[in-house]
Amino acid sequence: MTNQMTDRSGQAWERLVELMAAIEQDWWREIRQMPNPDDRAEARMFALNALHHALEFWSQADPERPWFYRWFSPTKKLLGDNPDAVYYGTVIHPDRDYVIRGNLAGAVYTSFTVEQGTVGGSMSTGLGATLNDDEIQVHPDGSYELHVSQKPQPGNWLALKPDSGSITTRHYFEWDRPAATDPTLHVPLSIQPVPHPGPPTIPDDESCAQSLERVATFLRSVTVDWPAGRPENVPEWSSIEPNRFTNPPLDAGNRAIGYAAADNAYRSTRYQLTPDQALEIRGRFPQCRFANVVLNNRFIQTPPYRHRRVSLNRRQTTLEADGSFRMILAHRDPGVPNWLDTAGAPTGTVFWRYLLPTEQPEQLQTQVLPIDEVRATR
Questions:
Q1: Which of left, alpha, beta for 243 (phi over 0: left; psi -120 to 50: alpha)?
Q2: Domains of the chain in sequence order
Q3: Is residue 300 over pLDDT 60?
Q4: Does this model's pTM top 0.85?
């Protein structure tokens, strides 16, 4: 039998196994606030999703020969997935040059974001260069070409920095159904290194060890190393008071938040509802490219949106006569428009995206009502 003391991939495998045990122990820490079996089951399902992503994306990461992987799906959720969007990601090397080719494919918004500090599977430390479809030359047929490098390039150029490690793409669709559930939706997207290094060698002990180490690094970053949500870590747009929203100015940016979108203005709060309560949200959509509201659990994962209405974009929202909206968050159907289904979760997050807003959003007004009184308060 091979001596594991000299088998690097075997040692990396053992460290990944040890990390899985450490993750399980972490859910029991008081600061994580998971006192009952259902809380910890939710945490384990999140860890499975994160492991799924790490195995698919980070184990195969090759910055010499990058490939765009779809980040989220109806069955793989993390980092604030969105039913109205399709995301892709790829690793890159900051010293290499690349060409990205794609097509808007009917999306209301397309963007490319360079993530900083993600080399080797580490969590993003912030956003680098970004380009949206307003900032790139797009051909009449929706196609485009981007040059990616540290050295400035003519035309569409996505700039890299020495600590750039990956690229995230966003493709938003404002349909009457969640775009992420459509198996026929195809977003053409490719990335080629310049020059091409040729084909890779077959996996060996060293490359296998590196793959396992990247998997463990990413998995650790979103589990045991993830902040516990102390108030000092909460951005201005995230309310620390349940069932209430803040309304910071639009210049309160989010470029320092890993995997955020530079063009989005966010609003969020935790809801807390008993089985017979409903949260009423009243407001107006600001002038913007795209807007939606999405429910998340504590791990910023959406509930099962293939089978439940857990998000509403502008097209899906029924407006009042004066152009405002009234949304109702509840555990069962209250019999009025714009119901957001909690799927029975007594607590979770209500998360808003206003994309490229051109005006300050109005304050979202909320009140908790007995669910039987929802119809009477219209």
A1: left
A2: 1-62+200-226 (no CATH), 84-195 (2.60.120.600), 231-377 (2.60.120.1600)
A3: yes
A4: yes
